[in-house]
Amino acid sequence: MSPKLQGVFPTLRLLGVLSLLQCPSVLCDCDFPPEVAHGRHEEVIGFRVFIQNEVIYKCDEGYTLVGVAKLSCSSSHWTPAAPQCKALCPKPEIAHAKLSVNKDQYLQAANVTIQCDSGYELDGPQSITCLEDRTWYPGMPKCKWVVPESCEYVGKGRKIMQCLPNPADVKTALELYKYSLEIELLERQIEKAKKYTAESPQ
Ligand SMILES: *[C@@H]1O[C@H](CO)[C@@H](O)[C@H](O)[C@H]1NC(C)=O
């Protein structure tokens, strides 16, 4: 070893010791930070660039962070516990319905109960839950228009009315149906009268 190199050696040694002091094992021997579903972590770049002792968590679009975002390595452990990235479900858009909870977005596991407006009947689940994949379980219900009970006696005319959600149209349909019954009755009376005339001696 050349004398010049021998002179440099203690300096290198000192640098090594210093770097060890700067990075004591309690701070530097953490494993990789925990992974979280629908999120990622980034190193916090500070003055001690060579030491990874702080990470910050960020969630994917459509997910929100629940817990503490910043973790540090202490006594070989990341503390506090890693946060969670929870799904945000879009508001269920159901025509002619009221929701038990009204929000723009709903947090994962939230339950919403659906109440159809009067005159409408639920077709599907009464209660739905926001899932991790940002969809509603078990599906999106509908509120279907139902024939008012007062119209039920109309029997035959009912079919026409099921196609007419407007009360005014229903009224017209009912009147038309009434006329058709009257015409039918008249026709039967005419038939009867003809038969009677035919049977009677001239
Ligand atoms: C939603 O309903 C389910 C099933 O009834 C229940 O397990 C869950 O705790 C409810 N979620 C909330 C946030 O209340």
UniProtKB/TrEMBL annotation:
Pfam families with a match to the protein in the record: C4bp_oligo, Sushi
Signal peptide per UniProt: 1-28
PROSITE patterns found in the cross-reference section: SUSHI
This protein's record includes keyword Transport: no
Domain Sushi as annotated: residue spans: 28-87, 88-145
Membrane spanning residue stretches: none
SMART domains: CCP
UniProt entry keywords in alphabetical sequence: Disulfide bond, Glycoprotein, Repeat, Signal, Sushi
Disulfide bonds: C30-C73, C116-C143
Name of this chain's protein: Apolipoprotein R isoform X2
Annotated source species: Ursus maritimus
Gene symbol of the encoding locus: LOC103657664
